[in-house]
Amino acid sequence: MKAISYWIIRRIFNFVTYTLIGMKVYGEEHIPAEGPFIIVCNHASYFDPPLLGTAVRHRLIHFMAKEELFRNPIMNWFLRYVHTFPVHRGRIDKKAIVESFRVLKSGGVLGIFPEGTRKCQGILGPFHDGFAGIAIKAGVPVLPAVVVNSRELPKKTGPVQIVFGEPVMPPADKKADKEAIRQFSEEIREIVLAMLNRHGGTEK
């Protein structure tokens, strides 16, 4: 029953994003058809997770989201229903890390917004390195993505776009030190920044 209900929710999201909003998706060919990977994306709006989740048509994304969103009972139920789990910001959250590895070991897709909070449209903040450490230790690719013009929804100030880049494999050494993790995190950020600037970003 839950699977059927989730399918209905996705159909509703498809109608809203593609028909009502007119969302355009580019680079779908870069989305792995199977196997675990991490999607790393900029974050400008509360609408970004459902937009990104809808754009990945044939895979289910398990999003990591800030713990504060789960304090409302109704929101807590809905977020967990759509396979989102909490993370405590500002400290190492072992429970969230364990859940991340569980998702990846089961062949799933992990969605992370590594800026940690929403930024103004076109601005890309510093990345937290957590996703890079998880990718290296799990040995899974990172799929860079950008969301453009989601900030002012439901008002439409420009075409909403989701763009996917090519997957990037992490360093092969799963015992990489903090500097190697930081460098891989920065490598992914530079890719996301270049994509964002090409499709409407402003931050250098």
From TrEMBL:
Which keywords fit this entry according to its UniProt record? Answer: Acyltransferase, Lipid biosynthesis, Lipid metabolism, Phospholipid biosynthesis, Phospholipid metabolism, Transferase
Alphabetized InterPro entries for the sequence:
AGP_acyltrans, Plipid/glycerol_acylTrfase
SMART domains, alphabetized = PlsC (SM00563)
- Describe the reaction catalysed, as an equation: a 1-acyl-sn-glycero-3-phosphate + an acyl-CoA = a 1,2-diacyl-sn-glycero-3-phosphate + CoA
Domain of life the protein comes from: Bacteria
A Pfam match: Acyltransferase
| CDD domains assigned to the protein according to its UniProt record, in alphabetical order | LPLAT_AGPAT-like (cd07989)
User: Phospholipid/glycerol acyltransferase domain spans which residues?
Assistant: 37-150
Which family is this protein grouped under? Belongs to the 1-acyl-sn-glycerol-3-phosphate acyltransferase family.
Q: How is this protein named in the record?
A: 1-acyl-sn-glycerol-3-phosphate acyltransferase
What is the species of this protein? Megasphaera stantonii
